[in-house]
Amino acid sequence: MGRNLIIFITVIGTILILFAFSLNHTFPRSYHHTFTKTTDLSNENIEGLFLNNEFYSEEMSQKYGKKTEKSRDVTDYDYFELKKGIEVAVNKTGQITRFIVTDGDLGTAKGIKIGNEKKDIIKVYGDKYYFRSEQGADIIGYVDKKREISLEFWLFGEKVKFYKLDNKSMK
């Protein structure tokens, strides 16, 4: 009886583990950031701006104008539209923690733009990505563990609809 119980528990445990891994596309970003191999994203910027740049700097005001009207009401972050197609999240200390890009003319450091296909992304960024789903989108994400940042491509119908460049602090 003891041997049959051990076999039964082992089989059930294996089935549960396989089931959990088959659903990993629905796990939160933090799960994927932990288990995805690192990709160098050190060159990723949006119009010369990098994550953790000071949002309330004179340089930002000169380039985009002084921003006071928030584009979203979100706890812990202030969102501002820099210009049509570029939105940023700013933390309580004034650092940029997220870029959301919908501008079809604005590519990533490696040239991926809105409208590119999944295969284009993998061709230039490589196969060290995670896959998840959220809000009806398929998402391919890359993590730079050294810099604690990530780049996510939100796909609808296999094509990039927008992309996000995030600091690890973003939830």
Describe the secondary structure blueprint for this structure.
Elements: H1 2-22, H2 29-35, H3 58-64, E1 72-74, E2 77-83, E3 86-90, E4 96-101, H4 118-125, E5 130-134, E6 137-144, E7 149-156, E8 159-167
Antiparallel strand pairs: 1-2, 2-3, 3-4, 4-8, 5-6, 6-7, 7-8
What report would you give on this structure?
Mean pLDDT is 86; it is low at 18-24. By secondary structure, the chain is of the alpha+beta class. The chain is elongated and about 75 Å long. The chain is built from four helices and eight strands, in the order αααββββαββββ.
What general outline do the C-alpha atoms trace?
A: elongated
**Side-by-side strand order of the widest sheet:** 1-2-3-4-8-7-6-5
Mean pLDDT: 86
Elements, N to C (H/E): HHHEEEEHEEEE
The stretches of 5 or more residues where confidence is low (pLDDT under 50) are 18-24
User: What count of helical segments does DSSP give?
Assistant: 4
Instruction: From the alpha carbons, calculate the radius of gyration and give it in angstroms.
Output: 19 Å
Based on secondary structure, the structural category is alpha+beta
Secondary structure: number of strands: 8
Question: Roughly what percent helix?
Answer: 25-40%
Assembly annotation: single chain
Distance between the termini: 48 Å
Biggest sheet overview = 8 strands, antiparallel
Which percent range describes the beta-strand content? 25-35%
Summarize the structure.
With 171 residues, this protein is an alpha+beta fold. It contains 4 helices and 8 strands, in the order αααββββαββββ.
Kindly list the characteristics that best describe this protein.
171 residues; alpha+beta; 8-stranded antiparallel sheet; 4 helices; 8 strands; 25% helix; 30% strand
